[in-house]
Amino acid sequence: DTAVSQTPKYLVTQMGNDKSIKCEQNLGHDTMYWYKQDSKKFLKIMFSYNNKELIINETVPNRFSPKSPDKAHLNLHINSLELGDSAVYFCASSQRGANYNEQFFGPGTRLTVL
Amino acid sequence: AQTVTQSQPEMSVQEAETVTLSCTYDTSENNYYLFWYKQPPSRQMILVIRQEAYKQQNATENRFSVNFQKAAKSFSLKISDSQLGDTAMYFCAFMKLHTGNQFYFGTGTSLTVIP
Predict the structure, then answer these.
(1) Residue-wise pLDDT tens digits, A51-103
(2) How far apart, in Å, are the Cα atoms of B10 and each of A99, B20, B107?
(3) What does the radius of gyration of chain A's CA atoms come to, in whole angstroms?
């Protein structure tokens, strides 16, 4: 059974378009995250939600808007896509207070902006 | 802000040999967690091993072990009896408590196991 799933796994789109990436976790965790991994493999936190509330919002353009309809889902919507948005986006989840607060990652979504 | 440094962008090791990947971090916190994650070509991030800062004993998971030196802020990963499936990017990560469980990742070390 997939613990953290993301759709789509690959996304190719034109500059200026709006796109969404969906994330779902079936682990019962209360915290979810979005990370961006650039072409040099550097992983950086973008957002974190705890029980549907935003708790971490790093310096990310406001074209990026996370939405959490419930604590099992955290979707990422991106407006007016730019070339520099091309990257792999990872969703992750964890349970606050659980052993080690380990984060479980989804398989990633490779976004290519043409 | 916390920083995590992995000074070895690339490493290679012969199959069945032992390799050590280095990681240092900078923090003023006293209690925190440290992790090593593996990212094979499949792109999936997989937890390898974890350590709580207040535990002096080094964590071990089968062929994987760490050398945690709190005073030196060092957290190296040792892989024994390297296998071809160990070929991957390895990321060191730091997490301080009570901040939304935010992870700070190092820049990664690309490890290649040579047959």
Answers:
(1) 878 877 777 889 999 999 998 999 999 999 999 999 999 999 988 776 667 88
(2) 31, 12, 11
(3) 13
Query: How far is residue A108's CA from residue B8's CA, in Å, rounded to a whole number?
Result: 24
Summarised one tens digit per residue, pLDDT across range B53-83 is 988 899 999 999 999 999 999 999 999 999 9
Whether residue A26 contacts residue A6, with contact meaning beta carbons closer than 8 Å, is answered with no
Q: Answer yes or no: do B101 and A101 touch at CB < 8 A.
A: yes
Decide if A59 touches B, using CB distance below 8 A.
no
- In one-letter notation, the amino acid at residue B33 is Y
Pick from B38, B45, B111 the residue to mutate for testing the A interface (most A CBs within 10 Å).
B45
What is the C-alpha separation between A70 and A77, in angstroms, rounded? 16
Mention every residue, 6+ apart, whose C-beta is less than 8 A from residue A98: none
Interface check for A41 against chain B (CB to CB < 8 A): the answer is yes
| Residues on chain A touching B50 (C-beta within 8 angstroms) | 100, 102
The residue of chain B with its CA nearest to that of A99 is B52
